[in-house]
Write the structure tokens for this entry.
Amino acid sequence: MAEQASTEHLESQGIVGGEELRTMPLLERAKNRLSWLSINILLNMIAASVIAFHQDTLTSVIALAVFLPIISDMSGCSGNQAVAVSMRELSIGAVKSGEVIRVWLQEIGVGVINGLALGLLIGLAAFLWKGSLMLGIVVGGALAVNTVVAVSLGGTVPLLLKHRGIDPALASGPILTTVTDMVGFFLALTFASMAISQLGNL
């Protein structure tokens, strides 16, 4: 009963599961965080390989280089919002770790609406900058789809990690950031490769 009361107290303070506290030994805290950051290096190498695989497309449409970090960053922000909501709901008991499907379906709705809005904005910016409707479609479409992917991951990954007994506060961020980068690069460069004849040398 004392252990349960302690866990509930930690969760009420927003410390999901109480896996890390700043009063814990320094090396233990660093080790816990480093384990996920190390995995992140491998995932980032995969993300970089996506760009390397499409380097001919990137060379032909150099304007894409400007939009790739915007696509990954905006998607990451959307995903982090979903992570924050899931972490908060876990901490106050508003959602259980087994309710992944329900949370995912709720996040898809938000992702579609926000993805379309953000995609239209970045697509319009690309069109106004380069005067290419196809460039706007490519970057706007990539951001729209990646936003849906990001919120889906952001909403569900903390629940999946919690269900597996892994601290979602440490692991959700690295997983979300790298996967959204990888998917965002893949979508933008793949869409551009499919429309390369209409993009010309932008």
The chain is about 85% helix and 0% strand. The helical segments are 2-12, 26-53, 55-60, 64-92, 100-130, 133-163, 168-194, 196-199. The domain at 2-199 is CATH 1.10.357.20 (Tetracycline Repressor; domain 2).
